[in-house]
Amino acid sequence: MDDQLALRIELFRESGQVRPEVAAFVTAELDALGAEGRTVTEETAGTLTSHLMMALTRLLNGEPIAEFPTDSEITAELAGHPDAVARARAVSVRAASELGAPLPDSEINFLGLHLALLDQNSPPRHET
């Protein structure tokens, strides 16, 4: 993770927009993506970071977005990105375990879009 992305997370946390445990959870998820060989920077993962922090905050505040008008279009777009969808669902499972609540399907879809874009810009490194 580059300094600008770390600063983004810190600003969200220090401003009170996200809880410390949400910032820690998102930081761990970004570190895991980086450990898999992806380039995780402000440029490649800035919007993913903000989206995940705000989605988790809405969830913990009891204000999850359960449905978007574009859900069907997003689901269709994700049909070509099964790895991103699987990763988004795994993040939701970890969120349930660590923060107490899974992401709703609409948030999983949006996270999947961000992860698919990250994979296009910085695919994971595969061990040979």
UniProtKB/TrEMBL annotation:
Superkingdom field: Bacteria
Domain PRD as annotated: residue spans: 17-125
SUPFAM superfamilies per record: PTS-regulatory domain, PRD
Classification via Gene3D superfamilies: PRD domain
Biological processes annotated in GO: regulation of DNA-templated transcription
Xref: PROSITE patterns: PRD_2
Descriptive protein name: Transcriptional antiterminator
Organism the protein comes from: Streptomyces niveus (Streptomyces spheroides)
